[in-house]
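Notes to self after the call with IL:
- keep both proteins in one doc
- input above output, always
- annotate only the second one for now

Protein 1:
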Amino acid sequence: MATSLPDLKIGELTINPPIVQGGMGVRVSGSSLASAVSNEGALGVIASVGVGEEWPDQSLDYPTRSALGFREMIRQTMDATPNPIGVNIMCVLTNYESLVRVADEEGVAAIISGAGLPLKLPGLVKNPKVKLIPIVSSGRAAEVICKSWAKKHGRLPDAVVVEGPLAGGHLGFSREQVDKPEEHRVERLVAKVAAVVGSYGQAGNVEIPVIAAGGVYDGTDIARFLKLGAAGVQMATRFVCTHECDAALAYKETYLRCTEEDVVVINSPVGLPGRVVRNEFVERVLRGERVPFRCAYHCLATCNPKTAPYCIAAALINAYRGNLDAGFAMCGTNAARVDKIVSVRELIDELVEETARAL
């Protein structure tokens, strides 16, 4: 899709429009959504968490069926688009290394990694063509990653996603910081991170583009970040209510029905705040109730099943399947603004037109 917008260049990769579709688990951004986004020239991204939960042989252990499901999903996505695709792999996953190996072997265009500092990532990837893109929420985190990667692996990030506290899903901020988003606006973070990676990039004679994320809703937002020096944006919430999004219709309808007051932050069992759409399950969590469960996954390194108030893996799998009585939909702060389900093409056309006008 040729547009008048500036390219997002990540090494030899050219993404236009300069939009990265955020990885959404569990299975919310699978092969259908990611391929549709990439077909429009933006970067479609598969979320790796929980991809094995639809694998036919559930007798296999969690890491094995996750690796098999992930490999199959990558191949399905690549078969459906000739354009680059990315994957999102959270550092906090217990099977992180296994999933990175799969993505590396399959030759995805980019591995985007957050929910912790991906300090090991360069040492796990053998394919030099795979772009490595950490997600950070501060200039300090960017500094730690650049310094560690340069010293231990002799390389720097190919790009950096800077995520602010208005984003969806798990947030890289304390609860106090999330409750005071104005003090940690992504607009401020972009400048701080750009200064850090710019310094390292200059020393290494490479360009490290900064991609803004968190609360990016329309073309006006995209244009604002481009003017601030970001090379592109990452968006997730807007892509949920597309026909191609892999989640059940009931999940999408949760967005269409919600109000601003329904978008709340809860404490996740993994020790991070998470933004979700309020429902009865969420109300139980907010009341401090424990939702009994038997851990069938041990998917998150920081989760202790003995003390966790609920199983987030089960909650998100149930939500993806449309069983919102036993789970919840994660979302960004702007979920209540979404009022219809459209195709990915319609959405991207709208975003491009708005951005071009605002620029």
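Protein 2 (the one to annotate):
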Amino acid sequence: MMMRKMLFTIVAASLAASTAIAAPTQEPLTAQGPAGTLAGTLIRPADGQPVILVIPGSGPTDRDGNNPLGVTAAPYRLLAEALGARGIGTLRIDKRGMFGSAAPGVDPNAVTIERYADDVAAWADAARKATGRDCIWLLGHSEGGLVALAAARRMPGLCGAITVAAPGRKLGDVMREQLRANPANAPLLDAALAAIARLEAGERVDVSAMPAPLQGLFAPPVQGFLIDLFGHDPAALAAGVTVPLLVIQGGNDLQVAEADGETLRAAQRQARYALLPDMNHVLKDVPGKDRSANLAAYGDPSRPVSPGLVDAIAGFVSPGAQ
């Protein structure tokens, strides 16, 4: 079965610390979602500390933040371990139909943002039962930021939400910008832009005559999800969030621009905002503007996640921070 490709990476590629405690113990956890059993990894919180549910980004991205399209940097695992060293609990998850959550008969492409939000609600209940914490924080990375915002608008009992490298504009506009930014895409551009416009209008597209890279990007099995995805306005979602919101954006992100973070911040005036100048899309600090070095970090699990990211999250969710 074809897995939905990672939207942002496909386009871009074609194109003060607390006292450390003992290394956190990681344990498997499952939840019963609307479409079957879901699998994840829990790091339990220390006494008095919160739990953060980490929602993955687009495509076949697993609970550690890796995917078979070239990302092996393990950003979610490293972030969970860094937060765990401060006593903050995390639950990182595999999306429905993928990896540990690949239940029999579940199509990973037959999803919408709202269905992912349904799974987040199931995960929040599982986290409460497993840890005894009544109030859960959501953290969504990239496309997962949209899921976090959608879920936060309708889930009771949340402490708050965090978006990291999340789009602030509709995804069709983000894709157009990414495609135009890479000169190598010039021969594909007209066909790609026409396909985006059709999908935004709720219409499926015939990929049979498209260049091979676009046949993968707009493959028929993923078009239903893309139609749904393109219909969501991240800024409108952020504006409707009533729980505390932290927007985090990296200044060296090749896939989501600083303007996206600013847009989310402007949409929700009560939100906190953290711009981390050196952080790239896989949450690693890469000083300078060397594109090759930035992309090399996508495959480097030895490089830690941005310390500024850990500080910003810990400072937001720690008891008494609000």
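Annotation: Confidence is low (pLDDT under 50) at residues 1-20. The chain has two domains: 7-170+232-283+291-317, 173-225.
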